[in-house]
């Protein structure tokens, strides 16, 4: 070999001018899309705070407003369905802002040919879920698209809630030294869905953890107001939630692998498919960032609630490196818990 | 391409001339082809890669390796 | 989980690490050649634990990364055909071809699906007789018997609509290439445990003797790799150059005869280009003439698609263990897992991707 070695690899990156599935997975691609395509055209300072819910004051009351769309497949799965998910998902976004959920809208995009009985089952499930909160579905809309344009049924819910006096939750309030608390075992929802998808064919008794978290959140806030932020780790898993908050707050984090609860079924499925539970979606869990002196009280309050019996302290917020989430292995070494570029692909190697 | 994990055979039969089984990995079960491990029976552990068992776990070997590790440690710790 | 958790025991790991550190009286450079082992080593920070005296370099152990550019382009061409259901393992979807990747093909309307087993593709063919189902068969020897079975079964069933784009690679020829190269610094190899489960380890005995190089067949859990490292260090300290087997619970010297028989019934050894390295004689597998009817390359007329491998760049040096990912000036800046420039950054098992995702904080801190 003669001559100087070229150090750069002249492989052109693929042209990224179309939406790929990764744009919806809550990882880096999703964040890029938001930043590059939407924010430039939507200048509202409320939006630019990039929090899970928009909080603003009207006539002396602080309202929280949020929206979410649900495209889950299959429509019905062990532990829930697109309907209950649509109610709980938006209620949870409100709850993560400390808001008491009040009103919900429900928009439906239906594919031509969808069985009406399926829609009825979904509506019934939504009604039941909303009634249990309770939250009222007060307005909605229905559109039909041609066969082949949708996965049978898509749902959007938007929610309004009231933030009590003195409650302020925001990633920007997270400080070095804060304890990171997790309400229970991770990965249930993502793995339960995967098990029912075509093509993977593994069996498990595992059910989605889909649940409304407003009661748990309220119990935690009653124990202490020194909770700085809460986030429900949905798509993208615990990893995305921690990374987003770390970068918004400009802090680092370090979590302990051995402290993170994972059910055997989730572990088994993840080992089998080469997935990391930290990236798998949850629909009934929350992460809280709590001032150190209040952590014990909040953890105790979590464990008293039926949705928080498996709650654990999983880590701590650090000064630096800002925006980096580290994990300490049981061997004492550390590794980065990175934001995935797009979808987590099952590993074969 | 090497991701392969150990699981326990809970069922085995023939389908279309292929030996097929149900293998349990922790809390989940999945079908796997057992053509390459004709000696493996229900209750045995096999290493499964992309839906195929490629070896039967040699329990004696596993035990031996593990004992060696424990013993080494014991000497180290002075115990 | 039995036979998994025991091999992750931190207390035993500490003892192994202590023993390794005690045994190594001078620096040694070791290499593993399996993406799965790379993943474990980096994920648990094992390099940090055994270093700096014992240095681990990562070899070309990721078949996803070394699949030649031309074959990716062939896959993209086939997947873009509207009659085709293109089935692949997940890792392959993000690999960049000359101009696109399979994810982009899917976004543009191609029917690209992820499989967890090659038999999923056979099922798809059976269930969709009016579509052509093509399976992208990539992998080392570990995956070859499974992929062979898919074609073998398709033939037995007389399926007319199933075919395979085969791009298998074999490990020993790659090791030979590394050892032949004048600039090799590796002094001992961890042989890939699941490849050897299928192939046995006789092939490595010849390499050990000819190049006076110690090999230890290693498993995939942290204790397996630590024990394999210890066994290599002991060989080196004692001046031995043998092939030893750490992964006895899965590997024996002759491997799995039934698996190999199926593999060789369907595949023949051929020359193969390794992306980032170049052509290596006798390092690949292709379908035998009896299975020509299942060769997607021929059926879709894409065999002629070949892309020139880029001039030797740091990818090749990283794959050969001569450079660390961090030695590359674009590592982590222009080249990241989200926008990979070279092969080792492409798959999560590649050395660069593994470093980037898990270890760059120590790298940035100069550790």
Structure summarized in a few sentences:
Chain B has 79 residues and is α+β, with helices and mostly antiparallel strands. Chain B has 1 helix and 5 strands; from the N terminus they run βββββα.
CATH structural class of the largest domain in chain A: Alpha Beta
CATH superfamily of the largest domain in chain A: PurM-like C-terminal domain
For the record, the count of structural domains of chain A works out to: 2
Q: What is the third-level CATH name, the topology of chain B?
A: SH3 type barrels
Output the structural class of chain A: alpha+beta
Can you put this structure into words, describing what you see?
The complex is a heterotrimer of chains A (349), B (79) and C (367). Chain A has 349 residues and is of the alpha+beta class. Chain A has 2 domains: 52-163, PurM-like, N-terminal domain (60s Ribosomal Protein L30, Chain: A), CATH 3.30.1330; 171-336, Phosphoribosyl-aminoimidazole Synthetase, Chain A, domain 2. In chain A, 28% of the residues lie in helices and 25% in strands. Chain A is built from 9 helices and 15 strands. Chain A has helices spanning 28-38, 45-48, 82-95, 116-132, 188-196, 214-223, 237-249, 264-273, 295-304; strands spanning 54-58, 61-70, 76-77, 80-81, 100-111, 136-145, 153-163, 179-182, 202-203, 227-231, 252-256, 287-290, 312-318, 325-328, 334-336. Chain A is globular, with a radius of gyration of 21 Å. Residues 1-15 of chain A have low confidence and may be disordered. The relative contact order of chain B is 0.19. The N and C termini of chain B lie far apart (41 Å). In chain B, a hairpin with a 2-residue loop joins β1 and β2 (18-25). In chain B, strands 3-2-1-4-5 form a 5-stranded antiparallel beta sheet, with no helix packed on it. Chain B is elongated and about 50 Å long. Chain C is an alpha/beta fold and 367 residues long. Among the domains of chain C are: 66-170 and 255-299, Rossmann fold, CATH 3.40.50; 314-359, no CATH class. Chain C is built from 17 helices and 11 strands. Chain C has helices at 10-23, 35-43, 46-50, 63-66, 69-79, 102-107, 118-127, 144-157, 171-180, 193-199, 202-211, 222-237, 257-266, 296-299, 314-319, 343-346, 351-364, and strands at 28-32, 54-58, 84-88, 111-114, 132-139, 162-169, 188-192, 215-218, 243-245, 267-274, 278-287. In chain C, the strands form 2 sheets. A 6-stranded mixed beta sheet of chain C has the order 4-3-5-6-11-10, with helices on both faces. In chain C, strands 2-1-7-8-9 form a 5-stranded parallel beta sheet. In chain C, a hairpin with a 3-residue loop joins β10 and β11 (278-287). In chain C, α7 packs parallel to α8 (144-157) and α8 packs across α13 (257-266).
